Amino acid sequence: MATLAFATLVIIAVLLGPLLIKSIERNVEFFFLLLGLLTAAIMGQFNAALVRGALVEPLSFTAAVLVFGAAFRLSKAYLDGLFATVVELLEPRTLCFFLAIILGALAPFITPVVSALVFVEAIALLRRDRSAEISATVFACFAIGIGAGLTPLGLPGIAVVLRSLHADFWYLTNLLGPFVAVGIVLAAAPILLLPFDPGEPLTEIRVEDSWNTVLLARPGRVYVFIAGLVALSDGLRPVVNAYVHRVPENLLFWINTLSAVVNNSTLAAIEISPSLSVSQQRAALLGLLISGGMLITGNIPNVVAASRLRISSREWARIGIGLGVVLLTLCFAVLLVVSR
Question: Which domain holds residue 205?
Answer without folding.
Answer: 2-338
